[in-house]
Amino acid sequence: MTILLSILAQLLHMAAVLVAAPLLTGLVDRLSHRRAAPDVLLPWNAVLRLLRKQPIRAIGTSAIARGGPVLAVTFAILTAFLIPSFCVGMVSAPSADLLTIAGLFLIGRVVLVLMAMDTGTGGGAVSATEIARLGLTAEPVLLLAVLAIGLASGTGNLDSILAMRADGLVPGTPAITLALAALALVGWSYGQTPSIDAWFSGPDLALLRVSDQIRLLAWCDLVGALALPFGMATVTGGFKAWVIGILAWIGRTLLAALLLAIVRTVGARSRVRTVLALAAALCGIAAVLAFAGGDPT
User: Fold this and answer.
1) Which domain holds residue 172?
2) How many domains does the chain have?
3) N or C: which end of the chain has fewer CB within 10 A?
4) Is residue 161 part of a domain?
């Protein structure tokens, strides 16, 4: 029975993620505009419209350009698959290692770099260079942050960490708090990654946009669940616990949308490298605290 509940929870989780990802992007866009705010459903409508169009590809494009959008959305879905939204104990729980999740985020960035380089244009090369340059700072910070959280929690499994934090067994120690702040900044930097949409069209462009939207929601789920694990259900908790878990997830997602909109409005001119430098500093302190054993675990 538990296995069936785990499968059902996993299916419900993925369905909710796929539906909510474009809505989160639309909500952030709406909250970021004081005047002539776009409709929340605009990203959904844009994706559906692009899927009905015929893709236009430059002559001589390689398999990277043809299969890149599919790979991008596949790795984004795999990332979201491992990050719980409303419930712990799903089918993905044994594989939900923080280093695995960080690796999937990294692979997603590598796919974007390869696709940008494969366009064969000057603009594509510039975008690829900038994406890779940001990755040189963002990815080490991400790896160090998850390492600090794992050390402070006593395990690197995200599902176990969320379950323990929901039960109060892993308090919000300084190392975890600083690492979460660093993760939030790295997640914000992902939203500032140079777009490569100009070189794609039709279904290819739709898949790229969906992959970006899923990654954004995955970041919100990762940071939000670690920072505010309240209401996180278990697969055997019953219908009421699942409803509470879903409502708590919706609340965390709405809060994330509001914070993203505020950051986008207030910090629109912030240099991404400066933000990543701050994230690296916070992460370094968190790692020192975790390695030194200064946190009670």
Assistant:
1) 2-292
2) 1
3) N
4) yes
Please write the tens of the pLDDT for every residue from 161-197: 998 888 877 766 788 889 889 888 888 877 777 888 8
227-249: pLDDT as tens digits: 888 889 999 988 999 999 999 99
Q: What is the dihedral of CA 156, 177, 223, 297, to 10 degrees?
A: 30
238, two tokens? 């019953």
Residue 297 lies in a domain: no
Do 160 and 82 meet the contact criterion of CB atoms below 8 Å apart? no
Residue-level pLDDT at 269: 52
Give 271-296 as a 3 state SS string. CHHHHHHHHHHHHHHHHHHHHHCCCC
251 inside domain: yes
One-letter amino acid of 263: V
Residue 58: pLDDT band by 50, 70, 90 thresholds? low
